[in-house]
Amino acid sequence: MPIAAVKGPRYWTAHILRFRPLALVCALLLLPVPAQADIGAEIAALAPSGLVLVLDAEGNKLVAQNVEQPFVPASVTKLVTAWLAVEVLGGDYRFETRFYLGNDGVLYVRGGGDPFLISEELALLAPNLIAAADRKAFTGIVLDASYYPADLRIPGIENDEEAYNALNVALAVNFNTIHAVRRGDTIRSAEEQTPITPLAVSQFRARGPRGRGRINLGQEDSSVSVRYAGELIAAFIEKAGGSVEGEISIGSVPEGLEPIYIHRQPRTLLEILALMLLGSNNYIANQVFLEIGAHRLGGPVSLEKSLQVAGELLAEHGLAEAIRLKEGSGISPENELTAGGLAKLLHQLAPHADLLPKTRAGSRYKTGSIPGVRTLAGYAQTSEHGQVRFVISLGGNTGKLRFRLLRAIERGL
Fold this sequence. Notes:
disordered N terminus, elongated, Beta-lactamase, 17 strands, 5-stranded antiparallel β-sheet, 38% helix, 5-stranded mixed β-sheet, 413 residues, D-tyrosyl-trna(Tyr) Deacylase, Chain: A
C-alpha cells in the first residue's frame, strides 16, 4: 500500500511545516536578484546619454553606463587636487606669511600663497606683529609677492568681475576679492570684520554693481591685489593700536633680513581642503595646486612645476593617461578624466572621504558645473554594498538630475 494512503492529513501538515524554513531558503535562492539590474534600468531611463560608473569596495562594477569616453570634470577636478595636495604637502601642512623689519622702521611682508589670509586672520596677527616688532609705528610697508610670477595666468580664468575668476597671487586677502555695498556715491564694506580701504573704494566704484556685491581684483594688473593686501594689513595694524606713517609699496625683502614674525595659517591643509570642497572655491584650489609644484621643485611657483609633479604622481599610480590636468580647480574645459581613472583616485582618497559634503543618506560628494557640463562624484552610502564609489557626468543644465541619480544609487544598491 502506498505510504500516502496510510498517512493522514495531520501528518503531512506537520511534515511540511517542519521543513518550511528549508523550503523557503530554496525558494529564495531560485528567485531572481533584481536590484543591480533594476538600478541600471532606472539610471538608463533617467539619463540615457549620461555617464554613470559605480564600483563596490573591491572594484567590481555595479553600474557602468557610457564610461568608455573621457569627460570634462569641471569642479570635480578639485578631488584630484585634494589628493595630490595630501600626498605632496601632507595633511598638517600650513601656509606661511613672513614679516620683516628694516632698520628704518619699514615693515616688509613676503607672501607665501596662503589661500586663507582673510580679515579674521589679519585681526589676529596684527597684535602679534606689533609685539614682535616691539614698536607700534611703522615708517612704511613694502610688499613682496615675488613667490608668484606677475604674469601667472590659470587656463579658464576669464577677465571679468566674477569672484570665481579671481587671479592667484602670492599675497592676497579675502580670496582676492572685495565685498562691498554701494549706496549712491557711498561705498562701504559689506563685512563687519573688514575695514574699507581707499583702494577698495576706488575699485568697487569703478567696477562694482549697485547695492551689495563682490568683485575680484587684479585681472589686468596683479599688483592691485597686492596693494589692497597692504592697505588691509595697515588697517588692522591701526585697529590693534599701531600706525603706518609712510607709503605702501611693492618691492623685495632685503637680502640677509630675518623675519621678526611668521604667521602660520591656523587651518591645516586638511581643514582648508574641506572648506575648498564645500564652497568649490577656484581661487583656493589653484593656490593649493600651485604650492604642490613649488614645495617639491622649489619656488617661485609655476603652473608648469605643479603639472609636472601632478603628472609624476599620477603616473606612479597608473593614472597618467586617465587624468589629464590643465589646472587644479576645474574651471578649464580642457581638463579631462576617465570615469575609471577618477574611480581609482577615489579609492586612494577614501581615507579622507569625510572632507566632502554629505547627503542626508550619508553619501559624500563633490559637484562640478561649467557651461554644458554637470558632474558629481564621491562615495555613495548603500544598504546592500556599504560605501561605493561613483562618478556621474551629464550634459546640459541637469544639475538636479545628478542628485536624482545619486539617490537612485543610494536606494537601489
